[in-house]
Structure prediction request, 394 residues.
Amino acid sequence: MNSLNDRLRNRLNKIETNGKLRCLTSTSPGDGARIIYQGKSTLNLSGNDYLGLARNRELLIDFYQKKSLENCLERYSLGSGGSRLMTGNFSSYPLLEQDLAKMYRAEAAIIFNSGYHLNIGILPALTGKNDLILADKLCHASLIDGMRLSRAEVIRYRHNDYQQLEELLIAKSNQYEQIFLVTESIFSMDGDLADLSTLVALKKKFNACLLVDEAHSVGIRGLSGLGLAEEQGCLAEIDILIGTFGKAWGGQGAFVVCSELLAKYLINTVRSFIFTTALPPVNILWLRHIALKIPQMQKKREHVRNLRANLGKALLSEELRIGGDSHILPVFVGESSKALRLAKELRQHGYWITGVRPPTVPEGTARLRLSLNAAMDWCDLEPLPKLLASLMEK
Ligand SMILES: Cc1ncc(COP(=O)(O)O)c(C=O)c1O
Prediction:
């Protein structure tokens, strides 16, 4: 055990020396976009609650006030007590799946416990050693872990470089049984967008299967909040569309929208669906409550879009280097240590902003990732660009 402890200490020291040590910080939720840290309220620019639903007091009161003790075990319990395939498939689960299929005008939807569960399970279940996965270089860690668990060959094309993707397809398409194209729609650390119509055209041309992770766009993009595929007019062409409930939906879990055949296959083969306890029933009930509201939240979506436009303009006028084209707005700072320093100083000024560092992002591209939320007002954000510019120079 001593030698193991020595090994752990050495490795942690190395991580810390490289400025990459991660620590858990205690916070409490505040109303709307605020987070309480050491008794002080700060503006939370690090969360994924893009519509401000997870911290919406009125919505929560409305949800709980409607509750009676009728059917309380099935509806409100905090533990499902079993996996979906054993005893945990209470009636609300298929009802939420039907709600989702209807919203997306799809044949079927299947709920998973989290986006991570979904992404580490789906590619290994779908692919075999005679298949090829072509994935965007910036796909989320959960998709990468899924690819690692799969037996398919994996090639990661340069971020949003569809020319390289097409060259790979031309070179490889008749060497494999099935090709899978994998992308996020809004990239989680860069906030930029995939061109889904181009990907749809490529998948058709090469008879590939297109999987799109819309974790950061469901709820917040598209006329009815279905995501970027809805906005870009190609919803019906996405073979496998993944969304998560832990971000704009203000809950927990994830879903895949797909054909009935594929849904049946996933239930039978995805290990991270089969071998895990189902989400608590009360969580499912909350998600059904939210599902009714998402399509009507156009005003909130527009508000976030306006905040983004104003903040982007103000940051550029301070000559800061920004990226993205969405409510996720990275401000590039370069070195990890600088990102850490800035995040710490911003906290003292009332802004909760996380520095994102390698290995989450490539070396030399450490950044402050600002994520906007419908519960924010422009007056909350207006002082930030000047402040950031002055701290950056120190
Ligand atoms: C693109 C993407 N997919 C999946 C996930 C995982 O989702 P969850 O938090 O529900 O596990 C994340 C989490 O941040 C993500 O950014």
Summary: The mean pLDDT is 94. Residues 114-116, 119, 140, 142, 184, 188, 213, 215-216, 244, 246, 254 surround pyridoxal-5'-phosphate (CB under 6 Å). The chain has two domains: 17-51+298-393, 71-295.
